[in-house]
Amino acid sequence: MKDAIILGIESSCDDTSASVVAGCKLLSNVIASQAVHSAYGGVVPELASRAHQQNIVPVVKQAIEKAGIGMKDIDAIGFTRGPGLLGSLLVGNGFAKGLSISLGIPLVEVNHLQAHVLAHFLYEEGESHESPNFPYLCLLVSGGNSQIIVVRSPFDMEVMGQTIDDAAGEAFDKCAKVMGLGYPGGPVINRLATEGNPKAFSFARPRVPGLDYSFSGLKTSFLYTLRDELAKNPNFVEERRADLAASLQYTVIEILMSKLRLASKQLGVKRVALAGGVSANTGLRAAFEAHRDRYGWQIFIPKFAYTTDNAAMVAVTAYFKYKAGDFCPLNLPPFARVTV
Ligand code: KG4
């Protein structure tokens, strides 16, 4: 039997994306990012909603063309229902609903965070690919989340630990901001870190029990270091940028990996996946590889294209739900906040 063809739509934040999959095989993934926010140092919700309105039709059209299919070939539409910015979500939700009515095909709602976790099942034609067996652990790290999730099946996920304040991506972004590095800061810190000494500065580590994370103390400690050093030398940040970035990145990775090691040990699970925007970080990827070599972990690291928000992961999640007959009614509203 041929695999179901799913159109995925993602509009939770500032990327408008559409993707077509046949089962878990990717046929297309189109992303329109919104440059408009960079001038404001963060995503402006109202501008994001407007840009989604401008982008959604051409993005979906392109995804269908690139996949080499016609509208009539689509078996179901999957869309990100939440969490995210409400105005942004409304654009994708409304579009998906309208299209499902006009095509007379089922609608599948997708939780954005679950989609990040299931992105590891996507594969491209001709690519050698290994999906994780269940159960596996997933470290989901983005601008809004830092979670350790145990994944027992596509529909059975449990958050074992999460941040009690800032997310890891937020720590990168906020520290980058005080160094005058622009937004988003994560990629800039990553680039600078390759030229710096990770042990040049030592920042506070959280003492949070169990598998939870905290990054606000690190942020404050970083801020105080800057304040104290700038009082002695006004050129401190310029002179030590690379060392500051490397030490910050080193500390964030240490915090993330120490709890992940604990989770792996406690649960006896050595299949460990990485997901979310911060998984683009090359230091974090290297730390995963080091843990594979040292602790015998089987690791799953996403391609760079699937670290940011994308509809391919939404489409593949919708495929799993479609197979299980898990459709949603047309009157379902989007939700802004929630975890997996
Ligand atoms: O998942 P994502 O695209 O969306 C949000 O949750 O907003 O994650 C974005 C986050 C931002 O905080 C950004 O600075 C961070 O991911 N990020 C990185 C890197 N690339 C993106 N952080 C560290 N190193 C990177 N290379």
Automatic annotation (TrEMBL):
One of its GO terms (cellular component) is cytoplasm. It comes from the Bacteria. GO terms for molecular function: iron ion binding; tRNA N(6)-L-threonylcarbamoyladenine synthase activity. Its main location: cytoplasm. Fe cation binds at residues 112, 116, 309. InterPro entries: ATPase_NBD, Gcp-like_dom, KAE1/TsaD, Peptidase_M22_CS, TsaD. It is found in: Cytoplasm. It catalyses: L-threonylcarbamoyladenylate + adenosine(37) in tRNA = N(6)-L-threonylcarbamoyladenosine(37) in tRNA + AMP + H(+). The keyword Transmembrane does not apply. Residues 25-315 form the Gcp-like domain. Pfam families: TsaD. It is an enzyme of class 2 (transferase). Substrate binds at residues 140-144, 173, 186, 281. One of its GO terms (biological process) is tRNA threonylcarbamoyladenosine modification. Its EC number is 2.3.1.234. Its cofactor is Fe(2+). This is tRNA N6-adenosine threonylcarbamoyltransferase.
